[in-house]
Amino acid sequence: MKQQASSSFLKKRTKKLFALGRRAFAPLEQKFFAELFFKKATACLLAFLACGDAHAATFADPIDTPALTYASPSAQPIIALTRAGDHLVAVGLRGVAMVSDTQAQAWTQSSVPVESDLVAVQFPDAEDGWAVGHDGVILHSADGGRSWAKQLDGISAKVMFEADYNRQIAAGNATLAPFLQQIQLNFDAGPSLPWLSVWFNDSRNGYVVGSFGDLAITHDGGKTWSPWLDHIDDPNFYDLDEIKNIGGQLYITGEQGSVWWFDPTAQKFVARATSYDGSLFGVTGTASTVVVFGMRGNIFRSEDQGKTWTQSASASSSSIMSGTVLPDGRIALVNVDGGILLSADDGASFHLAPAIENAPLTDIAELGPGQLVLTSLNGIEHAAP
């Protein structure tokens, strides 16, 4: 039993390290990820060898372990942030979540029931928000991000999603069999795969997307979730990296230059492929233009809801992690080399603002005029747009 427990522990931690790289680190390109992965994998292996079976017996699963409290949470690796009313909410590795003051100068760590890495956060209003991350974790906050409760993890998702598809197949919908099989492939090995992005239209209706084609929907504020793999043109079950509403239209970006636009009549995400064959990590844009971006600094824009795409001119070839539209209409993107890319022509071209040194940037928000707040693997950063 001890040997089986230790083997299970090592497999779980190794699988998690690989999953960690899917979003939070793999996009940070080889020079960064290789070093960080090596350090983490080595530390994990040494810890396992040093502690042996005793460590396996005392291992605390991150989905059942509250996040540690840090003296300086804003100096921890932060992956995503968003606005919630008059303040910002940020999330990051090892379950760190925090809220800012109105000037984003002081940050207070939030109460989080998991130690899983959190990689995306979104608030449709000032109070209700959702954060998602590794181990299939979905968290909900009802107080503007100051405290969080777990709604779903990879264990409960497997039960819920399999039951949903099995019920529909038993009722005669045999076309759902491939999607049930994919759910089983994604979750049978354990709850290690991440949700990579979340979007709620309001406090009740929302979506989450993740690795290997995972897509789920809720109509009750996350109390229950239904698998929606059959509602997207994704026969290869590509990673789905971000979901966001742009100009009243819902888009998903993912692997192989893939973009999907939501057809509200068909209730399905329709493929809107670009000419690119690399990963697209995110999407932003204005009422008239949608902009997608990703590996090696590639940026594409569309003025017809993704039916056609044009590559944008850019001064950088570093992978782009996130973007937003500033109040003055400019589009701002951030990359893994600490660069901020700005466009004043609706995404047709981007120029590179002075980089923040040694800060692989992961997300961006504007709290007020002339005040950009950035997240990085070094913590919170500030810049003028």
The CATH topology of the largest domain turns out to be: Methylamine Dehydrogenase, Chain H
What is the CATH-assigned architecture of the largest domain? 7 Propeller
Counting copies of identical and different chains, the oligomeric state is: single chain
Largest sheet: 5 strands, mixed
Shape: globular
Radius of gyration: 20 Å
Low-pLDDT windows of residues: 1-55
Structural class: alpha+beta
CATH homology superfamily of the largest domain = YVTN repeat-like/Quinoprotein amine dehydrogenase
Treating each run of at least 4 consecutive H or I residues as one helix, how many helices? 4
Q: How many strands appear in the DSSP assignment? A: 28
Distance between termini? Answer: 58 Å
CATH class of the largest domain: Mainly Beta
Fraction of residues in H or I helices: 10-25%
Concise synopsis of the structure shown:
The protein has 385 residues and is an alpha+beta fold. The protein is 21% helix and 35% strand.
Descriptive keywords:
five-stranded mixed sheet; four-stranded antiparallel sheet; globular; Methylamine Dehydrogenase, Chain H; 385 residues; alpha+beta
SSE blueprint:
Layout: H1 2-25, H2 29-58, E1 78-84, E2 87-92, E3 97-100, E4 107-109, E5 118-122, E6 129-133, E7 138-141, E8 149-152, H3 154-170, H4 177-187, E9 195-200, E10 206-210, E11 215-218, E12 226-227, E13 240-246, E14 249-254, E15 259-263, E16 268-271, E17 280-285, E18 290-294, E19 299-302, E20 310-311, E21 313-314, E22 320-325, E23 331-335, E24 340-343, E25 349-353, E26 361-368, E27 371-376, E28 379-383
Parallel strand pairs: 21-25
Antiparallel strand pairs: 1-2, 2-3, 3-4, 5-6, 6-7, 7-8, 9-10, 10-11, 11-12, 13-14, 14-15, 15-16, 17-18, 18-19, 19-20, 22-23, 23-24, 24-25, 26-27, 27-28
Helix pairs in contact: 1-2, 3-4
